[in-house]
Amino acid sequence: MAAEAPPQSLSTSGHFRRRLGDRALRVITALAVLVLTLVMVLLVYEVVDLARPSMSEFGVGFLSGTEWNAVTDKFGALDLIWGTLATSLIALLIAVPIASAIALFLTELAPAVLRTPVGMLVELLAAIPSVVLGLWGIVVMGPFLNDHVEPWMISHLGFIPFLDGYPSPVGLLPACLILTIMIVPIVASISRELLASVPSELKSGAMALGATRWEMVRRVALPQVGAGLVAGTMLGFARAVGEAIAVTQVIGGSLVRPQNLYAPADTLAGRLAAQYSGAATALQKSSLAYLAVILLVISLITNLVANLIVRRMRRRLGTP
Amino acid sequence: MEGLATAAALLAVAVLAIVLISVARKGLPALNLDFFTKNAAPFGETGGGIANAIVGTVIIVLIAAAISLPIGVLLAIFNTEFAPQRLADAIRLTLNVLAGVPTIVIGVFIFSLIVVGRGQSGFAGALGLSIIMLPLIARATEEVLLLVPSTLREGSMALGASRTRTVLTVILPTAVGGIVTATIVAVARAAGETAPLLFTCSIFVATTVTTDPRQAMATLSIVIFSSSESPNAHDQQVAWAAALVLIAVVLIGSIVGRLLSARTRRQIERAR
Fold it and tell me: If you average pLDDT over every residue of chain A, what do you get?
């Protein structure tokens, strides 16, 4: 009996130590979760807190106010919401077809040797820092649009109401195009991932039944991932809405709503980037924080919904 | 239709090429040793360089990595080792949503949290960048941890190792390549960010190198941003050359990160 005691006590102490170590790891890693939660909560709290004076001054009417005047201390976000939606939606209108086509090319059409390098090049487009894209936008793209593209559009498409006007090197159009460049890789990479995960039995089944490749894509592959494409589009939208730097560089920072596609405009994020450091009054600073609250709400909702859709798609298609 | 799809892919690659060629053509003439080793010239003078901005970017990004790397890896370990399915899902969702918060809003947040009352600092900028890096590192690390074959884990546990010892001596060493690549990609992303620094670390003396993160320091992205809006030809030249340096760093980081990541995956899969 006495001889058996030491091993037993040794093993209990080993067991105890082991449990202690596991518990310590669990606690330390759980602390990281606490930090993440804290960041998320503080982020919302601090931004709303900054916006509080403006929220109590203008209330919900801030969303429908069109004035932005530091002299009379009256602020409203309607024109900026308009500018944000206009730039983001036009960018999506151009980007989604291009991105879907790229995804199709990369999953169905491209020769195997090209898929990885071309896919990587498209993703590198997303890696270009927005400040560099913005610099390119003002110095190279803006003047090119002003000299060549916009005059052509005005003379050929000017009969369409919003497309008549005068060329301008900064304005809505360059902002839309810069945003397009930014969101194409995002939408393309999600669409590509989802299209690639469509079970190959389905695809080869359709082909075996005599469908052409395009019929297979349209009737079999796309319906499988339709909701996922919507989610990818939403993530692209969220990215476009939140982009501040490149937009503020190329959009011209106008205080009034533009009369046409070429005129200077402004967005929520663009105004925030341009004015926050130099806000003249406390109420202006707070109103700019109010813009940040609007951005935060849009991005939280869009990202939440899009991520839930993508998760459901992945579960259904059986990829982790 | 198939022709259009090919054209779309070509268009995307062409835009990448056009941007890169523009930046290279406009930036290269200003690149020389002085540009890397000297500080900005006093106002109105030509010459000078961006040594202070390079030093600032390196210091700020390193601090940001030092904050986000441990937290991100711990989060990933919690998710793969301890969290019940539902909690793990919730944490993943929170990380994705955090990754989607506009970076300019993160700038406003750090401004409110730290800069108000204390003034701008390299540390404040780094904290903003760390919030951007955290979801990138945590998600990529989790993916690699999940790739580690369960046979390795079970073998270790069967030999009597505790969970902690298994994580520290078996799982993390197997996954370390993946964690390094995740960090490289996140560092590349953070180095190119402007918005989180705009209100937290943008007012600095441009003619001296600052190495003290308690003060605001020059960064490549802020230098590009402020010179891009200047009508002065010399400032524009500086902006292009700085853009070339930044884009080279970011693209090399992204490419190396991706290639390494593919290699790590192959290695782990071979171990299976």
Answer: 88
